[in-house]
Amino acid sequence: MTTMKTTTTPAVGGGDVRLTGISKRYGTFTAVHPLDLTVPQGSFFALLGASGCGKTTTLRMIAGLEEPTRGTVHLGDQDVTRLPPYRRPVNTVFQSYALFPHLDVYENVAFGLRRRGIKNVRRQVEEMLELVQLGGQARRKPHQLSGGQQQRVAVARALINHPRVLLLDEPLGALDLKLRRQMQLELKRIQTEVGITFIHVTHDQEEAMTMADTVAVMNAGRIEQLGTPTDLYDNPRTAFVAGFLGTSNLVPARVTARSGEDIVLTAGGATLVLPAARCTVPAPAGAAVLAGIRPEKITLTHVDDAAGIPEGRNRITGRIADAGFIGVSTQYVVDSPVCPGFEVYAQNIDRDRRLVPGAEVVAHWNPAHTFGLDADRDGDAGPAHAEEEAA
Ligand code: ATP
């Protein structure tokens, strides 16, 4: 468990946030299907998903701003399901900041303490301002601050109440990209410093992956997959997750045989190898699977040099349909009978000048990077690029 370093430390302890069978219906519409979720104390947890997937509703049920249709919310041993928001040891930071415009930064941060009748607030307010690095802005009014600074005031104002859990509802949504990136690091630093549980709602996969220890990917009111950012990225269990976190090529394939620890697949005339341990479904001979591969794991070789490709690599032959230069890398689209619109990202180190639209190429990769998904569940959309489905 992380301990807090500030002396105005919000309370340590109190345990995990535990949702048990929690659901939310609005009339006949189910916004959140029954879900069980434990957020370990002290973790930075992200609920990630597209607009309307139910992440804010889930957060609001933890805050007490929304009453669950079924299920319970526990904070540590305490069942808080029926407690009003102000009686829960939880504070929420919203995208809109909701600062008091007529109060300066200092008084905005002091507000929670003054409301509780605490007279001597100076030391705590100053420490909070230091924590969010706004010590020099104490006498400014909110309109004299940048968006990022206002957001930091909102965080300080919430943390001074010593919540056990800080809920963040798209807190960086109103900021431009550069500021968002700065604030992502800033929020992560603050969380590490205070050591309390942060639960963060976002639709931005990069934001979730940058900050959170654990990410729950939500889709249509359900948690589709939960894990560390690297685990979700490397081992997506559904096409939705594969496409929501980055880009994936999903090649429709059929199982031909099992070879030791590997599954041998055929896809439009190509033979591909998939590690059995990375296949999310049972794959007997004849079964349909989607063979997934991330674009950055693939190398493109001009067909004239194909003889030099090492043995044992998965390979797909095709023609470059598009090549987009984006500085650090070039993003190729390769059309092949195996998989139209196959994406390959190549770092611009020693660029082969022959790799231009129209060129015939072999796309090849280490089979160990291949993952296998359920074609029956995920194959209907049949996209080569799962992010189209996720969008
Ligand atoms: P966003 O990122 O757009 O806020 P979200 O994933 O947070 O999306 P929610 O706000 O949790 O989604 O909403 C989930 C679903 O529940 C949506 O389809 C929404 O329209 C619906 N919903 C939310 N609040 C209500 C309500 N008070 N009455 C009826 N439907 C609602």
Automatic annotation (TrEMBL):
Q: Which reaction is the catalytic activity of this chain? A: ATP + H2O + polyamine-[polyamine-binding protein]Side 1 = ADP + phosphate + polyamineSide 2 + [polyamine-binding protein]Side 1
Q: Where is the ABC transporter domain?
A: 17-245
Q: Where is the region Disordered?
A: 372-391
Top EC group? translocase
The record's listing under CDD domains reads: ABC_PotA_N
Q: Which GO terms describe its molecular function?
A: ATP binding
Q: What is its EC number?
A: 7.6.2.11
Q: How does it assemble?
A: The complex is composed of two ATP-binding proteins (PotA), two transmembrane proteins (PotB and PotC) and a solute-binding protein (PotD).
Q: What is this protein called?
A: Spermidine/putrescine import ATP-binding protein PotA
Q: Which organism is it from?
A: Streptomyces thermoviolaceus subsp. thermoviolaceus
Encoding gene, per UniProt annotation: potA
